[in-house]
Amino acid sequence: MATRPGNCPERPRWLQFREQPFGTSLLISGLLMAAAGLCYGSAFSVSELGAKASGMGTAFIGIADDGSALVYNPAGIAFQSGAHLEMDNAVVVGLFRFTPSSTPVGQVVPPNGYSNSIKPHFIPLAFMYATKQISPKLTVGMAIFTPFGLSANSTNFHDGDPNLTKFVARFAGTRVRLESFWFQPTFAYKLKDNLAIAIGPTFVHTHLELEKSFLNPLGPDDGLSFGRTAAPTVLPGVPVNEAAAIIARLLPEGRSRVAGTANSPAISAGLLWKHPSSKTNIGLMFRSSVVNHLSGKASFAFGNQPYALEQYVGPKFLPNAFPNQAITGSFPTPATYGIGFANSKFWNTTFAVDVRMQDYKKFKNVPLDFGINKEVPGTTNIALPAEQILNFNFRESWNFAFGAERPISPTTTIRVGYQFDMTPVVPQSAGPLFPDADRNSFTVGATRKSGTKEFTFFYEAMKFMDRQTNVPANDYQWTNGDYHNFAHVAGLAMRFDVTNFSIKKH
Amino acid sequence: MKMTIVSVLLLVVLSFGAQSQTLDTTTFIVVGEGLAAGMANFGLSSVMQSKDFAALLAAQMNTGMEQPLMQPPGIGDVVGYPGQEVQVQKYPQGSVRQTYLPTDLTKAPISTPPLFVTNLSVPGLTLNDSVTMRPVAPVVQRGNMKQTVFNMILGFPQLILDNVPLWTQFEYAQAMFPTVALIELGYYEALNAAVAGDPRLLPSPAAFGATYGTVVAGLRGLQAQVIVTTIPNPLDTGYFNSPAAAAGVVLASPSVLSIGYNIGPQDYVTRNGLQTISNQLSTLQESSQEILPTPGGFLPLPPGSTLSAATAAAITSGVNALNAQILSAAKANGAVVYDLNAFLHNIKVSGAKAGAATVTGDYLGGFYSLDGVYPGATGHALIANDILRFLNQTYHRSFALVNVASVAASDPALQYVKPASAQLFTPSSLGLGR
């Protein structure tokens, strides 16, 4: 009779399949990650990258004792013996509300403000981690995760709807989707029994999609340049700038969509030092910034709305002025620096504190380059510039996490945590793409062990501090107002000790 | 009185309602008739168009206003006079629609007219015309001055272009996608009824209110801030004068009018009546006659020279009913109401200072032009300032006011004020009652 490693008796075949969860996990994770992406860490950071860490308010740099160590502190895997597979899943329910402080005349605002999470309401997240100890000093790992993601959708309208019922801040953005997949092989090495370092050269695949309305009839927008050109003909008795503003309003609203992908290198690193007598750990982590060089497509549409100038300029005027085309651009993501402390000396409880800084100052703008533009010799009536820069001017973000865990039985551990996350989004950039604010998060979690399996869950109640913006420059984008947000995040992780696992040959 | 109180309450409510709204002046359009168009004296011409309250408002609000400028001496029929024959233009008119000097004066004048205008006001236009009347080719319509003027303002150059829409005034206003729209409609209907002395010519309030509501709602639906003006009572204009005021114009004592023309103390003497009386008295003076042309009085005045007190009351009542409809339509659609009727009434009652001068609402009082129903430059400046004060208060803005003294200094309307000499004609000097 064949024996399984560890001399366990062979199980029925259906049960063998259940003992091969990684294949199933891979499939599920692959599907979920395709939809993953969300803004529930600072701006577009995702901090809930592991269920165990999330149960402790993400204070995990000094602990780093499961698969998610690969992202919280890669050096932590050096202290994990054997081989493990882990899959973390989470679902986020965002309750995002925006009530504008001023609106165009006659604007119809929903009684509870606008929702920035029109669809989908439930956003899934999934991450996968694998580690294997190669030797007493060397451990390797592989992580697939999304430390940056964003999904906001304020599109409450069809193009043909009356303007006064459309989402008021549509010219600042209606929909954004960002997924930054990190494929991170990691090498951790024990310098001493209580000191390890790790490095993870990473391949990053990023997908970005932005939608917004343009040709804003109420604000300075693309229509103005057309208006200045047409002013002497259309309204010769009016000063050029005033005429241009009037003429810009004679154009229809347009919708633009930009989508692109990028493949970029990155690196992660970590250090973990343990002081056994005081049961204290100190960890450091680093994740590099990435400049994602996007290539993709820009498309423009103008619906079927009649407009005053249509019969004077012809039906092809606007499609010619804003041609669909391939584009390039760049999208930076910030570096992350973290330090964490953990202590297990008292009350049979582990206490942990993390401080993380994300260098969101790098996220100043997103330049988009159009190959077909008005500066290309020989082109006529093209309204697109060679480069359009979306300015965001984010600031640094600081994150403070506190957590505690306590085993209440040999198989069960409970956790609690708190996290304060300072938003990098400056008032100028608060809007439908980034309806962000400082956050206070309270978390609970637990792990149940069963043989070689661990099941961990967490729940996080994320209260965004109410935010009110009043930036004069945004007056005509109608993004000033009250942002009142809350998010529920819940997740489940399955971790398997596969040290003695082997696929049986039939 | 009851209606006045209701009107005041409505205005207060509407004003509070507007306080939370913002005023975006990017595209300011005016939907009106002769008053907002700049009609004055004996036609619509660039002389007054550039000085009318719409142009002044746009200038003070730092926004563009494309006027359909007309070459002097202008076009359009004058209220109270027979309609003019429409003729193909002749010197000094060339294109009729005036072209523009370029901003850069080193360049040649712009020979083409603007594609669009933003002051859509057309002299003689009624509210019903606003939603039904369209440009009709050819541009010059022999026998139809009103259509010709309409074509010149809202159908030019559209009538000479292919495959472009020919809008009604209301459709034109919507197509301009305004941020601010000022509606000044209904005055012509009131003038027409008052000048004809026939209150039955006033539109039905219910029908008027329904159409007015359609116009306001149509503009509000475009997210425009809509300012509606109440209809001025024609009896407050210089066209209609009390016997005392009329006597001052014709240099006679009031009793000359009451005895000689049988004009009651509550009746009104019209602009045409003043001209007839002046002519008769002047003729008497020149011929040194001391006897009356007919036994017991003067030659009878032609129709339209006076307005009886009863008819005046009916006109006032009718105008108030229309204004109530305007208030109701404004409230129903979130528009704000500027009470032009009250302002012109105050002018009539109290006059106004214009620099060192005082203007009144009487004929030759300085406020109105020679037609008696449309203001002169100073009158337009005073209206503009009152609207600017209203906008500043309603929308918490700080638009500067027009320098009325400067306007008055060069306003011909202040130079043809009524004579200040003593009463030249008295019953005894004319042998009345002999």
Annotate the secondary structure layout.
The complex is a heterodimer of chains A (506) and B (434).
Chain A: H1 13-18, H2 21-35, H3 51-55, H4 69-72, E1 83-100, E2 114-115, E3 122-133, E4 138-153, E5 175-192, E6 195-214, H5 222-234, H6 240-248, E7 254-275, E8 280-287, E9 290-301, H7 310-313, H8 317-321, E10 325-333, E11 336-343, E12 350-358, E13 365-370, E14 387-391, E15 397-409, E16 412-421, E17 439-450, E18 453-464, E19 467-469, E20 481-497
Antiparallel strand pairs in A: 1-2, 1-3, 1-20, 3-4, 4-5, 5-6, 6-7, 7-8, 7-9, 8-11, 9-10, 10-13, 11-12, 12-15, 13-14, 15-16, 16-17, 17-18, 18-20, 19-20
Helix pairs in contact in A: 5-6
Chain B: H1 2-18, E1 28-32, H2 34-37, H3 46-49, H4 53-60, H5 127-132, H6 145-154, H7 169-175, E2 180-184, H8 187-196, H9 205-220, E3 225-229, E4 240-241, H10 243-249, H11 254-261, E5 268-270, H12 271-287, E6 306-307, H13 309-333, E7 336-338, H14 340-350, E8 352-354, E9 357-359, H15 377-395, H16 404-409, H17 427-430
Parallel strand pairs in B: 1-2, 2-3, 3-7
Antiparallel strand pairs in B: 4-5, 5-6, 8-9
Helix pairs in contact in B: 1-13, 4-15, 9-13, 10-11
Characterize this entry briefly.
The two termini of chain A are 12 Å apart. Chain A has helices at residues 13-18, 21-35, 51-55, 69-72, 222-234, 240-248, 310-313, 317-321, and strands at residues 83-100, 114-115, 122-133, 138-153, 175-192, 195-214, 254-275, 280-287, 290-301, 325-333, 336-343, 350-358, 365-370, 387-391, 397-409, 412-421, 439-450, 453-464, 467-469, 481-497.
If you had to describe this structure to a student in words, what would you say it looks like?
The complex is a heterodimer of chains A (506) and B (434). Chain A is built from 8 helices and 20 strands. In chain A, a hairpin with a 2-residue loop joins β15 and β16. The radius of gyration of chain A is 26 Å and the shape is elongated. In chain A, 48% of the residues are buried. The N terminus of chain A is likely disordered. Chain B has 434 residues and is of the alpha/beta class. In chain B, a hairpin with a 2-residue loop joins β8 and β9. Chain B is globular. The longest helix of chain B has 25 residues. At the A-B interface, α5 and α6 of A face loops of B.
